[in-house]
Amino acid sequence: MGAKGRKKSITKKLKKGASEFSPSSVSKDKAADFLPLEGGPARKLPDTEVRESKATILYIGRIPHGFYENEMEGFFKQFGTIKRLRLARNKKTGKSKHFGFIEFESPEVAKVVADTMHNYLLFEHLLQVRLIPPEHVHPRLSNLMTISNIVAGSRIKREVFLN
Question: What GO MF terms are annotated (predicted)?
Answer without folding.
Answer: RNA binding
